[in-house]
Amino acid sequence: MFGKLHSRSSTIHTHLLRRVARPPIRYLPAMILLFLLPWVIMLTLNVITNCQKFPLSKKLSKSRSAAKGTATPTPDSKISKKEEKKEEDKDKDKDKDKDKDKDKEKDKDKDKEKEEGNEKEKEKKEASEKEKTEMKEKEDKKDKDDEDDEDKEREERKKRRQQKEEKLKKERECMIKEALDKGNLRPADDNETVNECQSDWNGPVAKRKT
Questions:
Q1: CB-based burial of residue 204 (10 Å sphere; 0-12 exposed, 13-18 middle, 19+ buried)?
Q2: Which domain holds residue 179?
Q3: pTM exceeds 0.85
C-alpha cells in the first residue's frame, strides 16, 4: 500500500514539473510581451531623455562658449579668427615699426649729443686759443709799450741833453761876449783850430789875449 502511494506521488510530482518547465503555448506571446515591455519602455524613455538633452546641451555649449568668449567652430568663426590673426600680425608689425622708430630717435639723440659735445669742445678750444692770442697780444703790447717808453725816455733824455747843451752854449756865448766886451778875449782866427782857440774853461771858440 505504501509503495502504491509513493509511486502515485512521484508521478504527480513529475507531471507538475513538466507543466512548470513546459508552459502551454497559449501563454508564450504574453510571456514574450512581458519580457519585451520593460525593454521597450526603457528604450523610449532613453530616446526621450536624449532628445531633451540635445537642445539643452546645445544651449549649454553656446552659453559656455559665450561665457568663455569663444564661438563655435563655424566657417564664419574661422574667417573671423583669420582676420583676428591678421590684425594681431598687423599690430605686431606696427609695434615693431614703432620700436624701430624709437631706436632711430635714440640714435639721432646720441648723434646730436655727440655733435653738441664736439661743438662744446671746439668752442672750448677756440676760447682757449683766443685767450692765448689775447694774452700774447697783451704781452706784445706791453713789450711794445715798454719799448715805446724806453724810446720815449731816450728821446726825452736826448731832448734834455740838447736843451742842456743849448743852455750851456748860450751861457758860454754870453760869457765870451762879456769877456770880449771887457777885452780879456779876442775872436779866433780862421786858420786856428778849435783846441787852440778854446779858453781855459773850455768855452766857445776864442783865444786869450797875449
A1: buried
A2: 160-208
A3: no
Domain count, the chain: 1
In the chain, where do the E strands start and end? 185-186, 207-208
Residue written as grid cell 778849435? 194
Cβ-contact 187, 206 below 8 angstroms: yes
| Residue 66 placed within a domain | no
Identify whether 131 is part of a domain: no
Cα–Cα distance for residue pair 164/158, rounded to 1 Å = 10
CA angle 70, 64, 66 (to 5 degrees): 45
Distances (CA, A) of 156 to 145, 159, 160: 16, 5, 6
> What pLDDT, in 10s, does the model give residues 129-185?
888 888 888 888 877 777 777 888 888 889 999 999 999 888 888 887 777 777 665
Q: Write out the H or E segment, with its range, that includes residue 37.
A: helix 28-68
